[in-house]
Design a protein that fits this description.
Blueprint: H1 2-17, H2 24-33, H3 38-60, H4 66-92, E1 97-101, E2 104-108, H5 110-127, H6 129-132, H7 141-155, H8 159-166, H9 173-197, H10 199-202, H11 204-229, H12 238-256
Helix pairs in contact: 1-2, 1-11, 2-3, 3-9, 3-11, 4-7, 4-9, 5-12, 7-8, 8-9
């Protein structure tokens, strides 16, 4: 069941993220978190996200605007280091509250609370039309890179903010997709450096247990990215976005309250 959930999520969202809506990390991380501790889930998602972005760069990276990439992704990479470092701090903090529900113990931890709230926020960011129409002037590209990079490092959520800041950078559709993909790849490399020297080493057993799912998710994400590039019309998947958004809010709430 775990392989089915992870792989179907990776195929669907990898195809969807090329055009609009939730990013791969936004949806895949909660799926991993159903089976692994939150820090391991975020790190495992980062590996899949990195591999998928490498594959997408091969497919669409030649269309990237490198001037925009440098202004956006370099501040994003630096901020991702800070976000990833903060995640490692949160992961080490003690349990905030423990309780029993229906005879089962549950714990609210700082890392679950922070990531759960961020999942809810970014789900609402995608669902509420006002946020979907947000677009920032080109001069704010470095700021946008910092914000999306920081939240990418902290929780794996970076796609929504990246799109909001890149949408008014004067790029056509192909350049927008290529630029966003290259920028995402740079941020992934940055945050994986921090993950690699922190809880990757500390929680080696958890990472080792996740290896099979990570490899399966990478292959599924490749398939989704390949299928996405075959779609010639702009796809919004609005109805599916709403369904996924509601599910993310449920998962984020469960995570923040210690149910998951």
């Amino acid at each position: 069941m775990d392989y089915l959930i992870i792989c179907l999520t990776a195929v669907f969202v990898s195809a969807l993220t090329l055009f609009s809506g939730f990013g791969l990390g936004t949806v895949l991380m909660p799926a991993f978190a159903l089976f692994f501790p939150v820090p391991v889930a975020i790190a495992a998602t980062a590996v899949v996200h990195l591999a998928n972005n490498i594959f997408k760069v091969i497919l669409v990276g030649k269309k990237a605007n490198w001037g925009v990439v440098l202004r956006f992704a370099l501040p994003g990479a630096a901020a991702a280091l800070g976000g990833a470092a903060l995640l490692t701090v949160f992961a080490e903090l003690p349990v905030v509250h423990a309780y029993t529900l229906a005879g089962r113990p549950h714990e609210i931890t700082v890392v679950k609370l922070a990531v759960g709230i961020l999942i809810i926020f970014f789900a609402l960011f995608e669902l509420i039309p006002f946020f979907g129409r947000l677009a920032f002037d080109r001069k704010y590209l470095p700021l946008g890179g910092m914000l999306s990079g920081f939240f990418g490092g902290l929780s794996g959520n970076q796609g929504a903010l990246r799109s909001a800041f890149l949408i008014k950078a004067g790029l056509d559709k192909e350049a927008f997709i290529g630029t966003g993909t290259v920028a995402g790849l740079i941020v992934d490399i940055s945050r994986l450096i921090v993950y690699g020297v922190s809880f990757y080493a500390v929680q080696f057993t958890g990472i080792r247990d996740a290896q099979g799912l990570v490899i399966a998710a990478i292959l599924a994400a490749f398939l989704g990215a390949f299928l996405g590039t075959r779609l010639v019309k702009k796809v919004t998947f609005r109805a599916l976005q709403i369904i996924v958004g509601v599910m993310l809010i449920v998962v984020g709430t469960g995570m923040a309250t210690g149910l998951f």
